[in-house]
Amino acid sequence: MLHFIDFETFRYDWLCVIANPITQTETVIVNDPDKLRKYWEKFKSEIFIGYNIREYDQWIFKGILANFNPFDINEHIITKNLKGYQFSNTLREYPLIIYDLIQLNTSLKQLEAMQGHSIYESSVDFRLNRKLTPEEIEETIKYCRNDVQEAMDLFVQLKADFDVQMELINEFKLPLSYISKTQSQLVAEIMGAERKDCKDEFNLNFPDYLNLIKKYTSIVDWFKKFKTDRQFTDDEKKEIYSQKLDINVAGCPHTFAWGGLHGALLKYYGTGYYLHIDVSQYYPSLTVKRDYFSRATSEEGKKRYDMMRLESIRLKKFPELKLKRAGYKLCNNKAYGCMKDQYNALYDPLMANNICVTGQLSLLLLIEMLEPYVQLIQSNTDGLIVKLPDLDTYDVVDDICYQWEQLTGVTLAFDPIITKIYQKDVNNYLFINEFGDVEAKGAYVKELSKLDYDLPVVNKAVREYMIHGTPPEDTVNAAKDLIEFQKVVKLTSKYDYIRHIGNTYTNKCYRVFAVTEGYGGTLYKCKLVNGAPDKCDKVANTPERCVIGNGDMSKQVMIDYLDRQWYIDLAYERLRQFGGN
């Protein structure tokens, strides 16, 4: 059973709303620890879900059960910026099975804004130094209830992530309480990790086949200069990891660093015959083939890892088993990141460095082997895009790739031939293959979902031009729904309020629209400065003239003073960054 929960905490009051979508029931608790304790005792073996529940709500929940003042815990977490578990060991006595919906650095209000929901915030000041009035309690309940409903809606959209974790828990017969763990923690459990003291992270391994690199030996030497069994201080390691090598390889500007390889022709547009050469399961394959497992991994964990690697490839043919495959891929891909996380049981930075460095230099070898026959368009962590002078060269490339596979022990795959490509840089591109299929990466050209619906009309205009040659003005002028023109902005903690047309606002999230001259105004973010005029800066990437629209977009009609030209100009500017127009 799932229970969606959210707490609101004040100096002299607290409340929570708990909703159960299965039984379609709601429980509202206001300043009543006994009622909360009874709910916990009845359902503590079930799952409580919330947005940021791992870092905030669970500790308020446990603190109330332990008879602490929830406002003190709130201050500990929010004002002092400390972890909830550091407040008191007593909180550990109240187990709670949780699942967190949080999305990276995105607030729930931002996600609500993207979806076109109302993002008006409660007018009740959370810093009030008195008891709340009955009216303020009711308004806060309404606000809290809305956050719970938004969390339930978000869960539906992100349920695949939840299902993947449950699949892994069931597959490896783990306790239900493991759903509370992060994905990285769960992977460490599946790998049977027992933490090791690893202090040799630069004692790098260089496979013998890398000696075949002849033209770009300076890049190999750059990495080799770091090889040592010496132990470094944290500051020394930080300095090493900050270093990178910028160099031209096969006519492309490249960067080699401790996070991976990146190279691309900038602002590139082209047509012809292109190959996307992808390394299948690159990091997982290097882990297995070269025994780059974290040294904290059990022997059973190694067997599980290789099984999942092979099965995730085999299960491509069985779409009905996509959930199982997604779970296996998650474990394979997360294991590398775990080795870089000092708080994870799999922590072993040497093995992570071996994977990353070997991966980069192995791809460098492939580039060197292919360079006489193709034009390099892009290199990234696990693949290349190259342009063939003609289709006859395909067989030559295929033979070279086979030779590389025999040397490295990993497998390459060719996607269908690409016939058109737009490329801003290595992380932003769109290409179309011989069958008309489109692949895009990057905020400006990807297909937007409900959860990242920011300037959608501009994305659509850029894509329509690249794919069909449709002028951006045709796409922008044809759009009829106001939500297509929304720009969502967030007020960060560095600033105290928003100023717009002489008004000030303290909400954290805003939805704005470009408007024509005579309407709206510039959006400024401002910081309070004692004894001096407040410091204000224009909010980045917003129009010079805009209006704020934080209400429910489903109830909004098109405004006739919308500045469609601003969106058209922005689409053309983005196209120029991709070598188009």
Q: Average pLDDT value?
A: 95
Compute the separation of the termini in Å.
54 Å
Task: Specify the number of helices.
Answer: 17
**Count of distinct strands:** 22
Which residues form runs of ≥5 with pLDDT under 50? Answer: none
The helix fraction, in percent, is: 25-40%
Largest beta-sheet details: 10 strands, antiparallel
Strand content: 15-25%
Q: Gyration radius, to the nearest Å?
A: 27 Å
Structural class: alpha+beta
Anisotropy-based shape: globular
Draw up the topology in text:
Layout: E1 2-9, E2 14-20, E3 25-30, H1 33-43, E4 47-50, H2 53-65, H3 70-79, E5 97-100, H4 108-114, H5 134-157, H6 159-171, H7 183-190, H8 217-224, H9 234-241, E6 245-249, E7 252-257, E8 260-264, E9 268-279, H10 282-289, H11 299-314, H12 322-339, H13 349-370, E10 375-380, E11 383-388, H14 393-408, E12 412-414, E13 418-425, E14 428-433, E15 438-441, H15 456-468, H16 472-478, E16 487-490, E17 497-500, E18 503-505, E19 509-514, E20 523-527, E21 535-538, E22 546-548, H17 564-577
Parallel strand pairs: 1-4, 4-5
Antiparallel strand pairs: 1-2, 2-3, 6-7, 7-8, 8-10, 9-11, 9-12, 9-13, 10-11, 13-14, 14-15, 16-19, 17-18, 17-20, 19-22, 20-21
Helix pairs in contact: 2-3, 6-12, 7-12, 10-13, 11-12, 13-14, 15-16, 15-17, 16-17
Summarize this structure as a short list of keywords or feature phrases.
10-stranded antiparallel sheet, 17 helices, about 575 residues, single chain, 5-stranded mixed sheet, 22 strands
Describe the 3D structure.
There is one protein chain. A hairpin with a 2-residue loop joins strand 6 (245-249) and strand 7 (252-257). This protein is an alpha+beta fold. The protein contains 17 helices and 22 strands. Helix 10 (282-289) packs across helix 13 (349-370) and helix 11 (299-314) packs across helix 12. The strands form four sheets. Strands 6, 7, 8, 9, 10, 11, 12, 13, 14 and 15 form a ten-stranded antiparallel β-sheet that branches. Strands 3-2-1-4-5 form a five-stranded mixed β-sheet, with helices on both faces. Strands 18-17-20-21 form a four-stranded antiparallel β-sheet, with no helix packed on it.
